[in-house]
Design a protein that fits this description.
Elements (H helix, E strand, L loop, with lengths): L2 H6 L3 H71 L4 H14 L3 E7 L5 E6 L16 H8 L6 E2 L3 E2 L5 E11 L2 E11 H8 L2 H6 E7 L2 E4 L12 E8 L4 E9 L1 H7 L3 H59 L9 H14 L6 E9 L2 H8 L1 H18 L5 E6 L2 E8 L2 H14 L4 E3 L2 E3 L3 E8 L6 H17 L5 E3 L2 H23 L2 E10 L5 E11 L5 E2 L1 H11 L2 H19 L8 E5 L2 H5 L3 H11 L7 E6 H6 L1 H14 L2 E7 L6 H4 L6 E4 L1 H5 L5 H16 L3 E5 L4 H9 L4 E3 L9 H9 L3 H4 L8
Parallel strand pairs: 16-17, 19-21, 21-22, 22-23, 23-24, 24-25, 25-26
Antiparallel strand pairs: 1-2, 1-6, 3-5, 4-5, 5-6, 7-8, 7-10, 9-10, 11-13, 11-16, 12-13, 14-15, 18-19, 18-26, 19-20
Helix pairs in contact: 2-3, 2-8, 10-11, 11-12, 13-14, 14-15, 18-20
This protein binds ligand C2E and calcium ion (CA) (2 copies).
Amino acid sequence: MSVISSLKSSGRFEFAALIAGLLLTLSLVGTVWFYHGLKAAEMVAVERHIENLSSYVRLDILGSVNEQTLAQQRMAVRLARDGVEDEHAWRGDALLFQSHYPFYRSLAVLDADLHTRWLESTGIVPARQGRPYPIDARYRSALAGAADGDLVVTRPQRLTDGKFALDFIKPIIAEGEPVGYLAASLSVPDAIGAMVSDVFRDKLKLRVTFGDQIIYPYPFGDSVQYQWLQGFMLDVDGEVDSLSFDFAISESSRRQLESVLPPVALWGGGAMSLLLAIVAFLGLNATYQTRVLVTSNRNLEREIRERELAEQELEYLVTHDPLTGLPNRTGSTRYLERMLEDHDADGGQFALLFLDLDQFKDINDSLGHHLGDQLLCEIPRRLAGALKDRDFVGRHGGDEFLIAVTRNDHEQIEQLAANILRAFDTGFAIKDHRFFISASMGISYYPESGRTVSELIQHADAALFKAKSSGRNQFAVFTREMFSQAQHRLNLSRDIRHALDAGQFRVVYQPIVSSADLSLRGLEVLLRWEHEDGYMVPPQEFIRVAEETGVIGRLGEFAMEQALSDLAHWKKLTSAPPWLAVNISGAQVRENGFAEKLSVLLHQYRIEPALLHLEITEEILIENLTRNRRMLKKIDEIGMRIVVDDFGVGYSSLAYLKNFPISVVKIDRGFVQDLAVDHEDQAITRTICSLSADLGMLTVAEGVESRQQLELLRQFKCSYAQGFLFSRPVDASAVEAMLNERPSWQNEEPAGMST
Ligand code: C2E
Ligand code: CA
Ligand code: CA
């Protein structure tokens, strides 16, 4: 997982945001709580302030009211002492009182039955001289009860100008009896305005209510909503109801009292909270990122370590052969390259030995791959006996091994090669099997035989080829001639591939005739290569190289397909088409699914299997008995015919032939060549013919060039003949002519010769 993707993935981002959000909320709540705490504390301070101020106001008012009632008291006492007849004296008192307390609207002296006797008023008053004083009836009894001199304060009364007024009524007691009353009507708004000093009025707002009626200030129309605190009560109305004095702090003094702390705390706290949240978010994210980075780094390191291990493992696999544990072709090349680099000329002679087991294939095929594998594992051990520790052994592939050594001189190296070959003499014992196998070797010297590893290998291989073709179980040292031969083979194989693609190959057909009536019975398919330089490359030359280099498979397929398609055409021209005798090389026989492939082709060209004869040499047949028998059986079951080609040159044992499903024996040209003169060849040919007949096989004599040869073959009861006497190999159009008309060789046939 990459760093970027892991950062993006998962809810970590959201988690950090959540935590940051939570912190923000918490600290905001804290801030608000703190703000409210500060506010509450401030409120308490304000309240205390109001309380303090209001108690001053209360003292002011009460003091003033006391003073007034005392003045009224004195007036009442004087009236009682002087008698209530001296109007003039009283008016003097009243005017003096009013000049002191201008907020009293009227002063009146009432009869005992509460009629207004004398009235001194300054404005709007309901009282009239000689009339009953406007006072609620319920105060009468209170006043009667107040005869002992108690003051009665009436409830506030709204007068015509809208202001509320209070009446202070004081009995005038003479000789224990009330002779009248002193009534003073006070305008509440004016009184309070006068009584509360200016200092307080600025700082405080005062409201006086009676029940739910606001009686001060007048008019009451302030739009500001104050928080009113009750300051004190003043009993009026005979102690039934009271005036409530409420206070609030004025806007200006509230502003003075308000501290900057709460808003600072609020805004500061808010900002801090936001900052905190951002820091937390960034911090958390950063921690995550580091953690993710750390884990991804750790993962990366582990991945690198694993990859290194895997690379080492891969390197080992790539450079080593799993079976023997030896360096394989790649590993050997790398190792040898290093050896060459480190090699200094004074260190001695460096040589590369290319070793190949002789006929390992046979062991593999006959005894099974498992045993073959075990044998291959034995080889390094066997080599080790002849080698030194510092010598190198690698497996080049299959049954080929590379050995690199440094010795004093050529002689020592060739001695070593001989020792290695001798090491194989003792034979091998593997799983109850005991068998002998030899090896062949090619040697190349550095720097004479090559300057690079690939040159040295290539040239050791060329020398190996020489050792093999000179009879195996030996070694050969690379020479310049081998180089040109090898070069030639290499060029040729490259040319063959090119020629195949360029269509330079074609097939020709050589008739095979019945020796009895010379009628055309079969056609041997022979490859021709017309080189682009214009000359014909003989099959002996290119077939061998094609076999060595593996291109024979493609060549064989080409010849087979070409011939089958020609035959498919000829089949339409005649009711008795000739068979095709196709030469098959060892490489083709060894190929897996060879028989099946042919079967498919036959089907494709709609050709009866019996019309296809496969010419296989003795050598190839016996090369791998077990395997070949299985394959030949398959071919036979399909219905194709098997021909033993060039019979007589190799093992020449007819005895084993009976173990194979062989239909035709083709007597080698070598026996036919001198048949007319060589009695031995005659004997051999006769024997082959009669024995074959006994075994139920037909015979073909190849290379028949003369009439004498043909005559003898007829005597020997040889079934068919092939040779220049009848026809050279010809192309498809010539074959078509032979099918249409009686072939020329039949025309020349003397009448007496036909049977
Ligand atoms: P082979 O199978 O023995 O083919 C017969 C060879 O004898 C042919 O040579 C043919 O031209 C030659 N021959 C036939 N009659 C006479 C005669 O009266 N006198 C003389 N002196 N020679 C005669 P060719 O075509 O040069 O082929 C040579 C060899 O090349 C063949 O020997 C065969 O082994 C191989 N060959 C040719 N075509 C193929 C092919 O398609 N596949 C394989 N695997 N081998 C092929
Ligand atoms: Ca042949
Ligand atoms: Ca032949």
